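R.M. (postdoc): so does anyone remember the format we settled on? I'll just put the structure tokens first.
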């Protein structure tokens, strides 16, 4: 069955992924999906793709949608299709349809035929390269050439021709409406009535009597249609047959199309809002097998969203992993952007795995089968001993379930234990990562872990050299130098060894 978002069949995940809250992805998905209240888009965003083909299937559509004419054509079709589907769903709840209901179905089918034909003509004249849009054009073309569509179109035309031959007169008398077949001896008084009304009221144009039926109540219209159906039974039998034969006129893939296409447009609209901050998005190169990364000018997308109505500026970061490199150990002073970088890394992996553009000017990314996270538990919530137990339980769960395709993000764990114990526990975890060849970002104050094995890359949060108490929020690839930061700050505030010794000597 055709889908514009899935090359292969997928079962949608109806629940948030476990890592969403740690990475602030729940904030992002809420912001994106609230734009389309009528459609539940969240399950699409919750469902991770598991092959290069499936990911590129979507990314290629995003590339095509840079063509504004194509984007408008598909959006117009999706919006009109959505309206037809909603109106049709209302009809399914009607226990016994009357002729007024059946007239609505005729109009819906007429609109359906028009928009399908228009989309087919648009796709003939527009440029696109993605397999998804090519398959859409083929699907629409085959639908139009199919017997069901052809017969429905011909039968609808036949109904309109027959309805066009229906003729009747309405008479109003003492509060009653009379519906009668016209006779050759009767006279049409509509022109005389128009002239009379024109002389009674100040109107530049005469009232069109035919338009006045719009003011009739639904009940009156239904009653009139019942009478007319008795006058012209053969015509209305054709309508009955058409209603029964074509009630389920919408092809199933087109029932899903609006919701699936809105997945693209809502994300693109969200991107446009973030771009207003002067930030960039790019189409990433994504692989489920190649574990090399190269990302330029990236940022935490949830943080950027929170800056939309402020004057604050985002700090951009770049990083890469090559050859055997698998783990980034991030150290440096507190409040230096380490946690934000870790969240950014997780967001990138998630966005790559659902096949959408990512923050940055360039991105080469690995698409994991799952992201595992553990962020520091607030110390005022739990005692240190209990905190360590929770961390060890979480690490056991991660090491038990992770695979060679997993990404793990740990933020400031082991802060409740001694440095020596933290290093021992950290090394055991790094050994487990090495064994399965998983990707990891490890934010820690334990500098020694950054030098543990050849798969580890050290990155540090930087400060302004002349004012080490000020953070740049830049995370750079560099050997850990926590001691240097501490010494620089101590010297700035005259708290280094020599200053303290001098003060003591002076006091004596």
């Amino acid at each position: 069955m055709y889908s514009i978002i899935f090359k292969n069949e997928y079962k949608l995940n109806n629940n948030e992924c476990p890592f969403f809250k740690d990475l602030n992805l729940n904030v992002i998905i809420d912001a994106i999906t609230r734009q389309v209240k009528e459609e539940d888009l969240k399950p699409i965003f919750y469902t991770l793709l598991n092959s290069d083909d499936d990911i590129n299937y979507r990314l290629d559509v995003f590339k095509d949608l840079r063509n504004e004419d194509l984007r408008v054509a598909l959006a117009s079709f999706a919006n009109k299709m959505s309206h037809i589907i909603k109106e049709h769903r209302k009809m399914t709840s009607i226990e016994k349809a009357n002729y007024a209901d059946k007239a609505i179905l005729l109009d819906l089918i007429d609109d359906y035929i028009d928009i399908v034909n228009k989309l087919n003509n648009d796709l003939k004249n527009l440029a696109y390269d993605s397999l998804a849009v090519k398959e859409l054009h083929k699907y629409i073309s085959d639908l139009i050439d199919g017997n069901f569509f052809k017969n429905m179109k011909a039968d609808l035309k036949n109904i309109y021709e027959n309805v066009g031959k229906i003729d009747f007169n309405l008479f109003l008398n003492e509060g009653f409406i009379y519906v009668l077949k016209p006779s050759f001896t009767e006279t049409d008084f509509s022109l005389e009535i128009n002239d009379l009304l024109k002389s009674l009221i100040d109107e530049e144009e005469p009232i069109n009597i035919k338009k006045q039926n719009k003011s009739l109540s639904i009940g009156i219209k239904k009653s009139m249609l019942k009478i007319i159906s008795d006058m012209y039974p053969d015509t209305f039998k054709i309508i009955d047959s058409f209603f029964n034969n074509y009630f389920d006129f919408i092809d199933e893939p087109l029932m899903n199309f609006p919701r699936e296409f809105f997945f693209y447009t809502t994300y693109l609209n969200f991107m446009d809002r973030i771009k207003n901050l002067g930030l960039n998005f790019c189409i990433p190169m994504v692989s489920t097998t190649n574990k090399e990364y190269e990302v330029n000018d990236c940022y935490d997308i949830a943080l950027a969203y929170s800056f939309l109505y402020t004057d604050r500026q985002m700090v951009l970061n770049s990083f890469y992993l090559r050859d055997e490199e698998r783990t980034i150990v991030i150290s440096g002073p507190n409040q230096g952007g380490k946690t934000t970088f870790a969240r950014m890394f997780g967001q990138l992996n998630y966005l790559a795995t659902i096949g959408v553009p990512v923050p940055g000017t360039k991105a080469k990314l690995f698409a994991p089968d799952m992201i595992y996270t553990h962020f520091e538990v607030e110390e005022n919530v739990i005692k240190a001993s209990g905190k360590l137990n929770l961390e060890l339980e979480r690490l056991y769960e991660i090491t038990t379930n992770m695979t060679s395709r997993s990404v793990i993000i740990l933020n400031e764990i082991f802060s409740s234990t001694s440095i020596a114990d933290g290093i021992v526990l950290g090394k055991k975890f790094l050994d487990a990562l090495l064994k399965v060849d998983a990707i990891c970002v490890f934010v820690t104050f334990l500098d020694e872990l950054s030098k543990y094995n050849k798969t580890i890359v050290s990155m540090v949060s930087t400060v302004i050299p002349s004012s080490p108490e000020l953070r740049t929020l830049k995370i750079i690839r560099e050997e850990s130098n926590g001691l240097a930061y501490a010494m620089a700050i101590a010297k700035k505030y005259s708290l280094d060894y020599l200053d303290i010794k001098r003060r003591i000597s002076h006091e004596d």
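R.M.: ...and that's the designed sequence above, right after the tokens. Also worth knowing: The two ends are 88 Å apart (CA to CA). The CA atoms of residues 292 and 323 lie 7 Å apart.
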